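ligand=nicotinamide-adenine-dinucleotide
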Amino acid sequence: MVIQPKVRGFICTTAHPDGCQAIVKEQIDYIKSQPHANGPKRVLVVGASMGYGLASRITAAYSFGAATIGVIFDKPASGNRTATAGWYNTAAFEAFAHADGLYAETINGDAYSQEIKDKTIALIKKDLGQVDMVVYSLASPRRTMADGTTYSSVLKTVGEPYTNKTIDLKNRVVSDITVNPATDEEVAATVKVMGGEDWKEWIDAMKAAGVLSEQAVTVAYSYIGPVLTHPMYADGSIGKAKDHLFAASKQITAEGVPAYISVNKALVTQSSAAIPIVPLYISILYKVMKAHGCHEGCIEQMYRLMNQKLFNGDAVTDEENRIRLDDLEMQPAIQAEVQELWASIATDNLDTHADIDGYFSDFYRLFGFGADGVDYTADTDPVRTVGNNA
Ligand code: NAD
């Protein structure tokens, strides 16, 4: 099959197996080229197939030689449909890891469910005995509970509507958008999906099963960002869920497992593409950070998290015990430039004010398009294998 991108709204409905493989390889090569701390040797990553979770898995495997189990929620190819990008990323990661003599197994299913928790715990018991680190990196629009109730998360403000600039990426047009407040019910549902309840359920279930080692730590990811995104993010419905995630970190820590929130940089992922206002901010941020030589992607962020902030002696945290990987994004000089560009950005100056090409390049790369050395006009086999447990 010759596979081309087919973009619908915020997602691309096709993915390229060779492109995904090349991009996973680039991330592995990056980690291999860096000095390594002495980190955990057995790592579970929940939400391991894309974005920060995939980069966490690659970092643990190739910085520390860690055995990794990844929990993913992806689809293999069927008929004339390609697999999801997360499936291809995982197939590629497993193949590289196995060739390099590293244990890597994957469980494919809904991480919110008890069934997948039980299956994961059984696999840990069988193959690893225990794990030393749990990365919780789910980003999901919905969560289905054991009784069948489904909660959907929303990306809205809380309290007041908020109007600011946004970009229609397809037409490259900047316009104002008003984001309306979520209802109390919508906020509660967003907290159910993206808050800390399920993270804690994972840790509690693993503790009860005896599959967390004495030195085990856990980490989940959050975002704060500058004031212009606050009504939409930090103070919005997703921010309420992140507050809950933070509260869960304190509770999990108090109950015996050090639990960290890592505040990461804003990056193009499948999840962030769907948030109003944020993609325009990200494309200005890319422009400014690239000009200053301090731009990072998921893999550079996860490298710093594990090798410099978490496992390089005592954890490096702010006064609230959070790890700040947004330290470069939030530098006053960077934010001042972003603010200045934000104030005057419009459709006719997009190219000078923002890195729209960089945004698009990252977006397509999420699905394996635009990788160096891949012939996208060639036939390729869309069927790729993810290990025994998927
Ligand atoms: P992503 O969409 O790239 O990855 C999310 C992962 O979760 C995917 O592998 C997906 O398959 C998996 N997943 C979703 N639902 C699942 C389910 N039910 N069961 C199993 N797996 C499931 O997202 P991301 O941007 O890497 O986000 C990961 C975390 O990082 C989130 O908590 C997000 O809020 C946070 N974060 C993201 C950014 C950003 O700018 N992208 C910044 C800071 C923090």
